[in-house]
Amino acid sequence: MAVDAARSDEGFTSAGATRVMVTACRAAGLDDRGAELIRLGENALFRLASAPVIVRVARGEEWLPKARTEVAVSRWLAEEEFPAARIVEDLEQPLLIDGHPVTFWHLIVEGDRKATYGELGAVLRDLHALTLPEGLELPPFEPFDKQELRMDRALIPEDDKAFLRKRWRELQDKYAELRFETPKGPVHGDAHVQNLMVDDRGQVVLIDFEAFCYDHPEWDLMVTAVEHHSLGWQTDEQYADFVAAYGRDLYDWHGYETLRGLQEFGMTTWLMQNVQEDEETAAEYRRRIAGLRNDDAPRDWRPW
Question: Which of 60, 150, 185, 272 has its CB surrounded by the most CB atoms within 10 Å?
Fold first, then answer.
Protein backbone atom coordinates (compact mmCIF):
# COMPACT_ATOMS: atom_id res chain seq x y z
CA MET A 1 0.00 0.00 0.00
CA ALA A 2 1.47 3.39 -0.98
CA VAL A 3 0.47 6.74 0.47
CA ASP A 4 1.70 10.12 -0.77
CA ALA A 5 3.29 12.56 1.66
CA ALA A 6 5.56 15.57 1.40
CA ARG A 7 9.01 14.42 0.33
CA SER A 8 11.91 15.78 2.38
CA ASP A 9 14.98 17.10 0.61
CA GLU A 10 17.14 16.91 3.72
CA GLY A 11 17.84 13.17 3.64
CA PHE A 12 16.95 10.65 6.30
CA THR A 13 16.93 12.68 9.49
CA SER A 14 14.94 12.48 12.69
CA ALA A 15 12.68 15.32 11.49
CA GLY A 16 12.02 13.71 8.11
CA ALA A 17 11.41 10.28 9.64
CA THR A 18 8.92 11.83 12.07
CA ARG A 19 6.88 13.24 9.20
CA VAL A 20 6.79 9.80 7.56
CA MET A 21 5.76 8.18 10.86
CA VAL A 22 2.87 10.64 11.30
CA THR A 23 1.56 9.95 7.80
CA ALA A 24 1.93 6.18 8.26
CA CYS A 25 0.03 6.21 11.55
CA ARG A 26 -2.83 8.16 10.05
CA ALA A 27 -2.98 5.74 7.09
CA ALA A 28 -3.08 2.81 9.52
CA GLY A 29 -5.69 4.39 11.79
CA LEU A 30 -3.28 4.87 14.70
CA ASP A 31 -2.87 7.96 16.88
CA ASP A 32 0.63 9.45 16.44
CA ARG A 33 0.26 12.09 19.18
CA GLY A 34 3.01 11.85 21.77
CA ALA A 35 5.08 9.37 19.73
CA GLU A 36 8.73 9.22 20.81
CA LEU A 37 11.77 8.65 18.60
CA ILE A 38 13.75 5.97 20.43
CA ARG A 39 16.44 5.19 17.85
CA LEU A 40 17.83 6.53 14.58
CA GLY A 41 20.13 4.12 12.80
CA GLU A 42 19.48 2.01 9.73
CA ASN A 43 15.84 2.75 10.56
CA ALA A 44 13.99 5.23 12.73
CA LEU A 45 12.06 3.61 15.58
CA PHE A 46 9.14 5.36 17.26
CA ARG A 47 7.21 4.30 20.34
CA LEU A 48 3.55 5.34 20.21
CA ALA A 49 1.98 6.86 23.30
CA SER A 50 -1.54 5.88 22.23
CA ALA A 51 -0.98 2.11 21.84
CA PRO A 52 1.70 -0.51 22.70
CA VAL A 53 3.17 -0.27 19.19
CA ILE A 54 6.60 0.46 17.70
CA VAL A 55 6.66 2.12 14.26
CA ARG A 56 9.72 1.32 12.15
CA VAL A 57 10.60 3.70 9.29
CA ALA A 58 13.22 2.56 6.77
CA ARG A 59 15.59 4.88 4.91
CA GLY A 60 14.23 4.53 1.40
CA GLU A 61 12.35 2.45 -1.14
CA GLU A 62 15.47 0.32 -1.72
CA TRP A 63 14.72 -1.21 1.69
CA LEU A 64 11.20 -2.38 0.72
CA PRO A 65 12.26 -6.01 0.02
CA LYS A 66 13.89 -6.12 3.45
CA ALA A 67 10.74 -4.79 5.10
CA ARG A 68 8.74 -7.53 3.39
CA THR A 69 11.27 -10.08 4.65
CA GLU A 70 10.89 -8.76 8.19
CA VAL A 71 7.14 -9.21 8.09
CA ALA A 72 7.40 -12.75 6.65
CA VAL A 73 10.06 -13.80 9.18
CA SER A 74 8.03 -12.47 12.11
CA ARG A 75 5.03 -14.51 10.99
CA TRP A 76 7.16 -17.65 10.59
CA LEU A 77 8.84 -17.30 14.00
CA ALA A 78 5.41 -16.78 15.58
CA GLU A 79 4.27 -20.09 14.07
CA GLU A 80 7.41 -21.74 15.47
CA GLU A 81 6.67 -20.17 18.88
CA PHE A 82 10.21 -18.83 18.77
CA PRO A 83 10.72 -15.93 21.21
CA ALA A 84 10.92 -13.02 18.78
CA ALA A 85 9.37 -9.65 17.98
CA ARG A 86 5.85 -9.80 16.55
CA ILE A 87 4.30 -7.60 13.89
CA VAL A 88 0.85 -6.07 14.41
CA GLU A 89 -1.16 -8.65 12.49
CA ASP A 90 -4.33 -6.69 11.71
CA LEU A 91 -2.54 -4.03 9.67
CA GLU A 92 -1.58 -4.20 5.99
CA GLN A 93 2.17 -3.88 5.90
CA PRO A 94 4.69 -2.81 4.97
CA LEU A 95 3.26 0.56 4.00
CA LEU A 96 5.23 2.67 1.54
CA ILE A 97 5.09 6.28 2.67
CA ASP A 98 6.82 8.85 0.47
CA GLY A 99 9.38 6.26 -0.56
CA HIS A 100 9.93 4.92 2.98
CA PRO A 101 8.80 1.41 3.98
CA VAL A 102 7.01 1.45 7.33
CA THR A 103 6.17 -1.50 9.58
CA PHE A 104 4.31 -1.77 12.89
CA TRP A 105 5.39 -4.00 15.80
CA HIS A 106 4.00 -4.97 19.16
CA LEU A 107 5.81 -3.15 21.95
CA ILE A 108 8.03 -5.42 24.05
CA VAL A 109 7.75 -4.29 27.67
CA GLU A 110 11.27 -4.50 29.01
CA GLY A 111 12.15 -6.10 32.30
CA ASP A 112 14.79 -4.95 34.75
CA ARG A 113 17.86 -6.48 33.10
CA LYS A 114 19.66 -6.76 29.77
CA ALA A 115 20.29 -9.98 27.87
CA THR A 116 23.59 -11.74 28.49
CA TYR A 117 26.12 -13.03 25.97
CA GLY A 118 25.38 -16.56 27.07
CA GLU A 119 21.74 -15.97 26.17
CA LEU A 120 22.77 -14.59 22.78
CA GLY A 121 24.75 -17.75 22.07
CA ALA A 122 21.79 -19.92 23.09
CA VAL A 123 19.30 -17.97 20.95
CA LEU A 124 21.56 -18.22 17.90
CA ARG A 125 22.11 -21.94 18.48
CA ASP A 126 18.33 -22.49 18.55
CA LEU A 127 17.70 -20.21 15.58
CA HIS A 128 20.29 -21.94 13.41
CA ALA A 129 18.70 -25.31 14.24
CA LEU A 130 15.34 -24.29 12.72
CA THR A 131 14.21 -25.46 9.27
CA LEU A 132 12.70 -22.93 6.89
CA PRO A 133 9.16 -23.77 5.78
CA GLU A 134 8.11 -24.22 2.19
CA GLY A 135 7.29 -20.90 0.60
CA LEU A 136 9.50 -18.68 2.76
CA GLU A 137 12.13 -17.36 0.38
CA LEU A 138 15.03 -15.63 2.08
CA PRO A 139 17.93 -13.88 0.35
CA PRO A 140 21.57 -14.86 0.89
CA PHE A 141 23.68 -12.75 3.22
CA GLU A 142 24.92 -9.73 1.28
CA PRO A 143 27.88 -8.07 2.99
CA PHE A 144 28.09 -5.38 0.30
CA ASP A 145 24.48 -4.64 -0.57
CA LYS A 146 24.09 -1.33 1.31
CA GLN A 147 27.63 -0.05 1.19
CA GLU A 148 27.53 1.74 -2.16
CA LEU A 149 24.35 3.62 -1.24
CA ARG A 150 25.85 4.56 2.09
CA MET A 151 29.06 5.86 0.52
CA ASP A 152 27.20 7.82 -2.15
CA ARG A 153 24.84 9.53 0.28
CA ALA A 154 26.96 10.09 3.38
CA LEU A 155 27.94 13.63 4.34
CA ILE A 156 31.63 12.84 4.80
CA PRO A 157 34.85 14.22 3.24
CA GLU A 158 35.59 13.11 -0.30
CA ASP A 159 38.93 11.70 0.87
CA ASP A 160 37.07 9.39 3.23
CA LYS A 161 34.77 8.28 0.42
CA ALA A 162 37.74 7.50 -1.82
CA PHE A 163 39.39 5.47 0.94
CA LEU A 164 36.19 3.57 1.72
CA ARG A 165 35.59 2.71 -1.93
CA LYS A 166 39.15 1.36 -2.21
CA ARG A 167 38.69 -0.71 0.98
CA TRP A 168 35.31 -1.91 -0.33
CA ARG A 169 36.96 -3.31 -3.47
CA GLU A 170 39.70 -4.98 -1.41
CA LEU A 171 37.13 -6.65 0.83
CA GLN A 172 35.21 -7.89 -2.20
CA ASP A 173 38.37 -9.59 -3.46
CA LYS A 174 38.99 -11.25 -0.07
CA TYR A 175 35.36 -12.33 0.19
CA ALA A 176 35.55 -13.98 -3.26
CA GLU A 177 38.25 -16.29 -1.87
CA LEU A 178 36.35 -17.18 1.32
CA ARG A 179 35.28 -20.82 1.67
CA PHE A 180 32.66 -21.95 4.20
CA GLU A 181 32.44 -25.49 5.53
CA THR A 182 29.06 -25.30 7.29
CA PRO A 183 25.58 -25.94 5.82
CA LYS A 184 23.29 -23.00 5.15
CA GLY A 185 20.25 -22.22 7.26
CA PRO A 186 18.30 -19.32 8.81
CA VAL A 187 20.64 -16.48 9.81
CA HIS A 188 19.71 -13.32 11.69
CA GLY A 189 22.31 -11.22 9.88
CA ASP A 190 22.91 -8.62 12.64
CA ALA A 191 23.31 -10.81 15.69
CA HIS A 192 24.59 -8.55 18.46
CA VAL A 193 23.36 -8.58 22.04
CA GLN A 194 21.48 -5.28 21.54
CA ASN A 195 19.15 -7.20 19.21
CA LEU A 196 17.94 -9.19 22.19
CA MET A 197 15.49 -7.83 24.72
CA VAL A 198 14.38 -9.29 28.05
CA ASP A 199 10.69 -8.66 28.62
CA ASP A 200 8.90 -8.07 31.91
CA ARG A 201 8.33 -11.83 32.28
CA GLY A 202 12.03 -12.56 31.97
CA GLN A 203 11.81 -14.02 28.46
CA VAL A 204 14.66 -13.28 26.06
CA VAL A 205 13.25 -11.97 22.75
CA LEU A 206 15.03 -11.69 19.39
CA ILE A 207 14.37 -8.45 17.47
CA ASP A 208 15.29 -6.70 14.18
CA PHE A 209 14.88 -9.03 11.19
CA GLU A 210 15.95 -6.60 8.47
CA ALA A 211 19.09 -8.58 7.59
CA PHE A 212 17.50 -12.02 8.05
CA CYS A 213 18.70 -14.42 5.38
CA TYR A 214 19.47 -17.99 4.38
CA ASP A 215 23.21 -18.52 4.60
CA HIS A 216 26.11 -19.82 6.69
CA PRO A 217 25.93 -19.41 10.49
CA GLU A 218 29.34 -17.73 10.58
CA TRP A 219 27.68 -14.45 9.62
CA ASP A 220 25.90 -14.41 12.98
CA LEU A 221 28.95 -15.47 14.98
CA MET A 222 31.25 -12.82 13.47
CA VAL A 223 29.54 -9.92 15.24
CA THR A 224 30.33 -10.94 18.80
CA ALA A 225 33.69 -12.45 17.82
CA VAL A 226 34.83 -9.14 16.33
CA GLU A 227 33.39 -7.11 19.19
CA HIS A 228 35.44 -9.19 21.61
CA HIS A 229 38.68 -10.02 19.84
CA SER A 230 39.09 -6.74 17.92
CA LEU A 231 37.19 -4.13 19.91
CA GLY A 232 37.32 -5.49 23.46
CA TRP A 233 33.66 -4.80 24.13
CA GLN A 234 33.13 -7.96 26.21
CA THR A 235 35.06 -9.40 29.09
CA ASP A 236 36.76 -12.75 28.62
CA GLU A 237 34.07 -14.28 30.84
CA GLN A 238 31.23 -12.84 28.78
CA TYR A 239 32.73 -14.10 25.54
CA ALA A 240 33.42 -17.51 27.08
CA ASP A 241 29.72 -17.72 28.03
CA PHE A 242 28.75 -16.93 24.43
CA VAL A 243 31.08 -19.60 23.03
CA ALA A 244 29.97 -22.20 25.58
CA ALA A 245 26.28 -21.60 24.85
CA TYR A 246 26.68 -21.72 21.08
CA GLY A 247 29.42 -24.34 20.93
CA ARG A 248 31.94 -22.59 18.69
CA ASP A 249 34.52 -19.77 18.71
CA LEU A 250 34.75 -18.15 15.28
CA TYR A 251 38.19 -16.76 16.16
CA ASP A 252 39.62 -20.23 15.51
CA TRP A 253 38.30 -20.29 11.94
CA HIS A 254 40.55 -19.51 8.96
CA GLY A 255 38.09 -16.97 7.61
CA TYR A 256 37.91 -14.85 10.77
CA GLU A 257 40.16 -12.02 9.53
CA THR A 258 38.10 -11.58 6.37
CA LEU A 259 34.89 -11.45 8.37
CA ARG A 260 36.53 -9.04 10.82
CA GLY A 261 37.28 -6.66 7.94
CA LEU A 262 33.72 -6.90 6.66
CA GLN A 263 32.21 -6.36 10.10
CA GLU A 264 34.34 -3.32 10.95
CA PHE A 265 33.66 -1.80 7.53
CA GLY A 266 29.93 -2.29 7.99
CA MET A 267 30.01 -0.79 11.50
CA THR A 268 31.75 2.31 10.15
CA THR A 269 29.52 2.87 7.13
CA TRP A 270 26.41 2.25 9.25
CA LEU A 271 27.39 5.02 11.65
CA MET A 272 28.51 7.50 8.98
CA GLN A 273 24.92 7.76 7.72
CA ASN A 274 24.07 9.90 10.76
CA VAL A 275 27.08 12.18 11.10
CA GLN A 276 24.80 15.17 10.52
CA GLU A 277 22.70 14.40 13.62
CA ASP A 278 25.14 15.57 16.31
CA GLU A 279 28.82 16.05 17.10
CA GLU A 280 28.96 12.90 19.26
CA THR A 281 28.03 10.73 16.29
CA ALA A 282 30.45 12.58 14.03
CA ALA A 283 33.28 12.12 16.55
CA GLU A 284 32.65 8.37 16.78
CA TYR A 285 32.65 8.13 12.99
CA ARG A 286 36.05 9.84 12.95
CA ARG A 287 37.38 7.28 15.45
CA ARG A 288 36.15 4.42 13.31
CA ILE A 289 37.45 5.70 9.98
CA ALA A 290 40.84 6.33 11.64
CA GLY A 291 40.83 2.70 12.80
CA LEU A 292 40.09 1.42 9.31
CA ARG A 293 43.01 3.41 7.97
CA ASN A 294 45.37 1.58 10.37
CA ASP A 295 44.47 -2.11 10.65
CA ASP A 296 47.08 -2.78 13.34
CA ALA A 297 46.13 0.09 15.66
CA PRO A 298 44.12 -0.58 18.82
CA ARG A 299 40.40 0.06 18.37
CA ASP A 300 39.03 2.70 20.75
CA TRP A 301 35.57 2.48 19.19
CA ARG A 302 32.55 2.88 21.42
CA PRO A 303 29.36 0.81 21.30
CA TRP A 304 26.59 2.70 19.52
Answer: 272
